[in-house]
Amino acid sequence: MPNALVVGNWKMWGSREQAKTLASSVAGSSQSGVDWGVCPPFPYLQVAIDQLGCDRVGAQTVSADQSVPHTGDVSAEMLADLGVRWVIVGHSERRAERHETNELVRAQVERALSQGLVPIVCVGETLEQRNAGQAESVVVEQLDAALQGLVPTTDLVVAYEPVWAIGTGVVATPEQAQAMHAVVRQRVKDLGLSDRTPLLYGGSVKPDNAEGLFALADVDGALVGGASLDAQAFLAIIDAAAAAKAE
Ligand SMILES: O=C[C@H](O)COP(=O)(O)O
């Protein structure tokens, strides 16, 4: 059975000193059956690498373009040069606030793969879409746009993050999470990708709900926002993943 994967998304949080303290506070965690890492903001990637090593660090986005004049962008080549392992693409905050389309997310996935980075491809529906009965179709459309026809040269990770559960304290019920993860698992397989592709759940994951989520058949780990900013909470979520794996 593959390891569980727990990734902390620090979003636009912290200072250099806070990043160093948080990274060093979680650095010692080593649980059998669990792989984990953190995605700090760009300016603190090196701070995290210094504390944790490259294999435990990812970026939060990447340019869809190659290294030509794009003021403010960070290329996949730069991230690979830095040595980070993962890059989050298609997070709903970027889709909504930075108007990142399915097409742009696809280009980011391709750029990441071209440089040997592991994309963590985020998909998920809004509350309006769920209430309209469109959760599955929205997620399948996002998956198809990002992954159809890909021949990945590295691993790939998919994160199902219902937008209504992000930063709200409202976590998907086990039934909702499992139902959507089963849809994602099947679609990933239908798209010709490995059925061992790790599927992470994201959206208000906390120490007190993590074990229940990790116990679900098609949940292979978590993409953790707010709780990853608290070292004890993040470590407890890693422990919960280890406990679920051990059962
Ligand atoms: O990438 C992480 C997700 O946006 C979840 O954030 P959250 O755990 O604060 O709800």
From TrEMBL:
<dbReference type="GO" id="GO:0006096">
    <property type="term" value="P:glycolytic process"/>
</dbReference>
<keyword id="KW-0324">Glycolysis</keyword>
<comment type="similarity">
    <text>Belongs to the triosephosphate isomerase family.</text>
</comment>
<comment type="pathway">
    <text>Carbohydrate biosynthesis; gluconeogenesis.</text>
</comment>
<feature type="binding site">
    <location>
        <begin position="9"/>
        <end position="11"/>
    </location>
    <ligand>
        <name>substrate</name>
    </ligand>
</feature>
<feature type="active site" description="Proton acceptor">
    <location>
        <position position="161"/>
    </location>
</feature>
<feature type="binding site">
    <location>
        <position position="204"/>
    </location>
    <ligand>
        <name>substrate</name>
    </ligand>
</feature>
<dbReference type="InterPro" id="IPR000652">
    <property type="entry name" value="Triosephosphate_isomerase"/>
</dbReference>
<dbReference type="GO" id="GO:0006094">
    <property type="term" value="P:gluconeogenesis"/>
</dbReference>
<keyword id="KW-0963">Cytoplasm</keyword>
<comment type="subunit">
    <text>Homodimer.</text>
</comment>
<dbReference type="GO" id="GO:0005829">
    <property type="term" value="C:cytosol"/>
</dbReference>
<comment type="function">
    <text>Involved in the gluconeogenesis. Catalyzes stereospecifically the conversion of dihydroxyacetone phosphate (DHAP) to D-glyceraldehyde-3-phosphate (G3P).</text>
</comment>
<dbReference type="Pfam" id="PF00121">
    <property type="entry name" value="TIM"/>
</dbReference>
<dbReference type="InterPro" id="IPR013785">
    <property type="entry name" value="Aldolase_TIM"/>
</dbReference>
<keyword id="KW-0413">Isomerase</keyword>
<protein>
    <recommendedName>
        <fullName>Triosephosphate isomerase</fullName>
        <ecNumber>5.3.1.1</ecNumber>
    </recommendedName>
</protein>
<dbReference type="InterPro" id="IPR020861">
    <property type="entry name" value="Triosephosphate_isomerase_AS"/>
</dbReference>
<comment type="pathway">
    <text>Carbohydrate degradation; glycolysis; D-glyceraldehyde 3-phosphate from glycerone phosphate: step 1/1.</text>
</comment>
<feature type="active site" description="Electrophile">
    <location>
        <position position="91"/>
    </location>
</feature>
<dbReference type="InterPro" id="IPR035990">
    <property type="entry name" value="TIM_sf"/>
</dbReference>
<dbReference type="GO" id="GO:0046166">
    <property type="term" value="P:glyceraldehyde-3-phosphate biosynthetic process"/>
</dbReference>
<dbReference type="InterPro" id="IPR022896">
    <property type="entry name" value="TrioseP_Isoase_bac/euk"/>
</dbReference>
<keyword id="KW-0312">Gluconeogenesis</keyword>
<dbReference type="GO" id="GO:0019563">
    <property type="term" value="P:glycerol catabolic process"/>
</dbReference>
<feature type="binding site">
    <location>
        <position position="167"/>
    </location>
    <ligand>
        <name>substrate</name>
    </ligand>
</feature>
<feature type="binding site">
    <location>
        <begin position="225"/>
        <end position="226"/>
    </location>
    <ligand>
        <name>substrate</name>
    </ligand>
</feature>
<dbReference type="GO" id="GO:0004807">
    <property type="term" value="F:triose-phosphate isomerase activity"/>
</dbReference>
